[in-house]
Amino acid sequence: xxxxxxxxxxxxxxxAVDRVSFRIDGPAFVGIIGRSGAGKSTLLRMMNxxxxxxxxxxxxxxxxxxxxxxxxxxxxxxDCAMIFQQFNLVPRMDVVSNVLHGILNRRSTILTLFNxxxxxxxxxxxxxxxxxxxxxxxxxxxxxxxxxxxxRVAIARALMQNPRIILAxxxxxxxxxxxxxxxxDTLKRINVEDGRMVIANLHTLDTARxxxxxxxxxxxxxxxxxxxxxxxxxxVARDIYGADASxxxxxxxxxxxxxxxxxxxxxxxxxA
Amino acid sequence: MxxxxxxxxxxxxxxxxxxxxxxxxxxxxxxxAMFISGFRIAxxxxxxxxWQGLHQIGDFPADLIREAVEKAANLPGHMIRAxxxxxxxxxxxxxxxxxxxxxxxxxSLAATRGLAYWPRLVPVARRVSDVFRAIPEIxxxxxxxxxxxxxxxxxxxxxxxxxxxxxGKLFSEVNENVDLxxxxxxxxxxxxxxxxxxxxxxxQVAPNYMSYSLLRLEINIRASAILGFVGAGGIGxxxxxxxxxxxxxxxxxxxxxxxxxxxxxxxxxxxxxxxHRLTHGAPA
Lengths: 272, 284
Fold this sequence. Notes:
A: Rossmann fold; B: mainly alpha; 11 helices
């Protein structure tokens, strides 16, 4: 379904993404991990067409989407939704309008200018918001919402596009653990219930292990790991992050520990 | 969400959309009506008719260009002769922009909520810059020329006052969009007001200030040329002479227009590269 072949992006003299190849068949949940500057975001941006690639091909049903230009490229973008770390909503417009932006590719400029949307489209946007549990926020401005709510609006916009592929660029990096879990659960639900492919850049290993069917590790623009989440041992993680033996993922893990006995005892003394 | 609750949200939002559309439609109707009636009033008050005069609109430029082309050989000579006057005009504009921007900066800091040293005086500072902006340069210049006599000084004062008012407004709008986090950071280490402004605000707003100031310089070059028409010296005086003497002198007028155009282009190019350096740093 998605075949990435030798994709390269060169900024100046540095290769941000260096001959990356992989193939995803069917609607999998794929996580891409690696430290900052490993080329994860650039790779996702090239898939969507936000950043042009230097060389290589991305084949979707035997069509090279990196070669598309103009209208064709925008049509592909509407088929391949993107979710950003900082949500990238229009802050001063209401939530429903932001969701309706998902179908801009199918609409004329003049209708957009006067903000005229059909009743059916508005009802569909509201239904999507209801599915994500934020329908009661519908008339509020996007900027008035919390980070977790804004990210769910961004996911609703993506769903409005009715895409085959959802790309998520560090979707939970600006969220607290509770909201991060809600957003990741939502993405997983979309993946399982709708059968849409999800490719997410993640920066916490426990998230990758818990949600992904497959994990791709990148380092300095290259793919250095491609396998099942269960194969993602601490040793492999050290390789991906280029860390030495002092690397301890529990030190910065955002997972809430399953064992609550010690916490409960401490909390009891504090609350007494 | 339960089905009735969702239905409620749906009807509410659809009603909201309807209301917005009605307001938008009404606004559009009012706008079109005002536009048409305004145009008709202007047309009826006009000495001639807009439609009858329309075809003559190109006559003056056409005469000017025709004559300038005929006497193209004279143009360089005229330009050299007008050059000292151009330098005077540029000097007026530069001094007035500098003075006006400094005064405008002080006014803007005093007129921005959240930054002002005396928050109670914010409305006063705003009204002061309103007044400065409201009086046309040419009125101040005429009064000053009457009092001080002709020359560049009245022009500098007139343009500086107008610039201070305009920059006070523009700068304070830039200040309002400033990120207050660095200011808070500096306040947390015990910095005083001027230190907070100098280190927390100015570095953020400098590129914007710079580009507004340079744009203002362009406007002021034109303004100082216009003030020459009323006796403030500079290239405007030369241009008025060339234009009022009419046919036969149009090559001089064309030479002066070309000089002014070249100057504006030069200032624009210069300011673009300066702004680029300010926002992206010097080329490595």
